[in-house]
Structures are given as structure tokens and as C-alpha cells.
Design brief:
By secondary structure, the chain is an alpha+beta fold. 40% of the residues lie in helices and 17% in strands. The chain has 16 helices and 15 strands. The protein has a 6-stranded antiparallel sheet with strand order 3-5-4-7-8-6. Strand 1 and strand 2 form a beta hairpin. The longest helix is centred in the middle third of the chain and has 19 residues. The radius of gyration is 22 Å and the shape is globular. The model has no long low-confidence stretch (mean pLDDT 93).
């Protein structure tokens, strides 16, 4: 019999874990298209241009690198600053709307409390954004070239601050070949243009209060569909926005509530998957920077506090992780190397570093099988694929 707490039926940590994995399509792969999956997830964090590829591989049945590269080329998806001000892979529709919804967050980086804000004191930021829009509509530009051209009008401000203003005030997309599989090496320069110019239709970068209020409600609903059940603080941490209680209040008649393991109120969509704490969870290889481990204020539903601190670096780098029975148990990294009997780069390694635990024989067998599959996905040209587990 399900216990009932202050806010409704009680959910254990394992029940939250399985609900999250089900919605992230990590209990079993989805038979869906990359565009539909990116839409469902409200984007995939993409600070590293290649990270969405293993991110989708872990979620979609039969996913191939070309399946996403082609969507970049036909402009169904793109990379743009979105939640938390970080670069995400999003659909075209979201690239045209999310910057308007997230505008207060994005603008804060150049309006208050940063080195950019100090350097831009006294500068009309709206004028900078308008000038940048004109330049980028005419032709895509690198950040360096954009800053240099803006600097001709604002010679007293360093170009990098002017370019950063454009990135925060305008819906700027990274144009191809950036983001294409195999085209993201050190020599690939990030080049920007406006979402309006790239997609040939107007963005909704400026929303009136009623439009933004409705858009926030839609955003919270989508967040719950992909990350719930969740608290208001979870939604705020994932998005980077504050003040979402009003949006939740408007949405509340559509929602059901639960009491979480911490006694707090957890909100959810009535018909969203909640398979229960006992649902089997396969071993999963989660991509670096994946929102699975970044999408909540309280991340213990997928990684405990000790391991969370172990995998998060001071500069915000988040490695690929291994889920065992639903929870982060190790990190992984692909390494290309050679053996004495092979040519350089003929061997692809998956280096797995356990986080204070030892794999059972069955778990190690699952890791070897899934790890080899991942290596074949990211390095099909390699003649050997080797999964190595370091001492814990």
C-alpha cells in the first residue's frame, strides 16, 4: 500500500529515479526520430559539439551519427545558448522561441555582476545588439570578427565584450559545419548568425508579458514531461530562471502532486510514466554534459552527493557517466591509441573509472558489451575496441 504524505502519495528515491529514466528513454530505447527526441528533452546540453551524439545513441533505437548530422544540414536542429545560459542542441522551433523565454537569464550576464557588465558600463547594449543583428544578417561571423566589426563603432570597449553582448541579447545559432559529426576538431571555428536568418522565419526573441507567461507555462509542462516528478526549485535550476512559481500556479490545475523522499512537494503530469521503484534498469552509458545529471536542484535521484562532487570539476566539466541500477557508479572517456602491433589510432579504448564501487561479474559483462557498442558507434574505423576498468 502506497504511503501518503503531506502533498499526496509518497515517492521513494528509487521511484523518482525510475520515473526520470523512463522519461529520458533510458530504461528502454525509444523508436523515435532525433528531432522528436530533441524536442521531447527540450534540447541536449552541447558545450561539447559531439556530446549529443552519444546522448541520442543511448536513448534511440538504431541511432546513427548521420541521423543527427543530416538534421543539422536540413536545419531541423541547431546549437544555441539556452537553459542556464549554456549551449544546447535544440529544434528549430525552440531556437526561435527559447531565447525570448530565457531572455532575463541571458541578458543578466552582461547587465549585472560580471566582467562583461563592468566593461560595458555606459554602453547602450540595445544599440550593440541592433548593430550585431545587422552584421550577422548580412553574413555569418566568428566571435572575433563580430567583435572587431562592432569595435569600429565602440572603440573604447574590448571586442570580446561586444561579441558577448550579441550572444546574450540575440538568438544566435552556431552554423554548420559546427556540430556535424567528424567536423568538430580544434581547427573548426565557431561561426554565428541569427536564428531568424538561419531558419528564414522570425524569432520570438521579444515577448510581451502575456506571451512570456504562456511560454513559461509551456516550458514547465515540457520539463515535467522529460524530468518529472520535480519541485519548483528543480525546474528553476534546470532552466536557470527564477520566479517560476507563477507559471506552476497557472499549470497546477493540470498537475498531480506527490510527497518526495525529502518531504517536499513534487509536481507531475497525470499521465507521465512512473514505472515504480522496482522497474529493472539496464546499465547505461550517459553522455558528457548530459542533462540527466544536471537537470535538478536535488540530483540524488541519479547521483549521490559524494559522487556528484567527484564528477564535477571547478570549470563545470561533466564527464560521461555509467549508470548501474539507475545511479551513477563510474565515469567513462573514449581514448584512441595504438598497440605495438597496430598502426596509430587503430585501437579505440573506453576508459571506465569506478566511483568507490566494484562491478559484479554480471555488471562487468554488461559494461563490456555496452561499452564495445559505444566504441563501435564513435570509432567505427578502429580495428579494435577495448573496454578498460581502472582500479577503484
Amino acid at each position: 500500500m502506497t504511503a501518503v504524505g503531506r502533498h499526496g502519495p509518497s515517492l521513494t528515491l528509487d521511484a523518482l529515479n525510475r520515473a526520470l529514466l523512463a522519461r529520458q528513454h533510458l530504461l528502454s530505447p525509444a523508436s523515435s526520430t532525433p528531432v522528436a527526441e530533441v524536442d521531447h528533452l527540450v534540447g541536449l546540453q552541447s558545450q561539447a559539439p559531439t556530446s549529443p551524439y552519444p546522448g541520442l545513441w543511448s536513448r534511440l533505437d538504431g541511432f546513427r551519427t548521420d541521423d543527427l548530422s543530416q538534421r543539422f544540414l536540413d536545419r531541423s536542429v541547431t546549437r544555441i545558448a539556452a537553459m542556464r545560459g549554456t549551449v544546447h542542441l535544440v529544434t528549430a522551433d525552440d531556437a526561435l522561441e527559447l531565447p525570448g523565454v530565457l531572455r532575463p537569464l541571458l541578458e543578466a550576464g552582461v547587465r549585472t555582476g560580471s566582467t562583461h557588465a563592468k566593461a560595458l558600463t555606459g554602453t547602450n547594449l540595445d544599440d550593440v545588439a541592433a548593430a550585431a543583428r545587422d552584421l550577422l544578417t548580412e553574413s555569418p561571423l566568428t566571435s572575433g570578427d563580430l567583435g572587431r566589426l562592432l569595435g569600429e563603432r565602440w572603440p573604447d570597449v574590448r571586442p570580446q565584450h561586444l561579441a558577448y553582448t550579441a550572444r546574450c541579447f540575440l538568438p544566435l545559432v552556431q552554423v554548420t559545419p559546427r556540430g556535424l559529426w567528424g567536423a568538430n576538431g580544434p581547427g573548426t571555428t565557431t561561426t554565428w548568425t541569427t536564428a531568424d536568418a538561419w531558419f528564414g522565419r522570425p524569432s520570438r526573441a521579444l515577448l510581451d508579458p502575456d506571451e512570456r507567461s504562456a511560454a513559461l507555462v509551456r516550458l514547465v509542462r515540457r520539463y515535467l514531461a522529460a524530468f518529472g516528478p520535480a519541485t519548483v526549485m528543480d525546474a528553476q535550476r534546470w532552466s536557470g530562471l527564477t520566479g517560476l512559481r507563477d507559471a506552476v500556479g497557472q499549470l497546477r490545475p493540470e498537475l498531480v502532486t506527490f510527497t518526495g523522499p525529502d518531504g517536499k512537494e513534487y509536481l507531475d503530469l497525470p499521465d507521465a510514466p512512473r514505472p515504480g521503484a522496482d522497474a529493472p534498469a539496464p546499465l547505461v552509458l550517459v553522455a558528457e554534459f548530459d542533462n540527466l545529471v544536471l537537470g535538478h536542484a536535488d540530483r540524488t535521484r541519479v547521483v549521490d552527493d559524494v559522487r556528484r562532487k567527484a564528477i564535477t570539476t571547478v570549470n563545470g566539466q561533466v564527464p560521461g557517466t555509467v549508470l548501474v541500477d539507475g545511479y551513477v557508479a563510474a565515469t567513462w572517456k573514449v581514448r584512441r591509441g595504438a598497440r605495438a602491433t597496430t598502426t596509430p589510432d587503430a585501437v579505440a579504448h573506453l576508459d571506465v573509472s569506478p566511483l568507490g564501487r566494484t562491478f559484479t561479474r554480471a555488471q562487468r559483462a554488461a559494461l563490456d558489451a555496452r561499452g564495445t557498442d559505444l566504441l563501435r558507434f564513435v570509432a567505427p574505423e578502429a580495428s579494435e575496441h577495448v573496454v578498460t576498468v581502472t582500479a577503484s
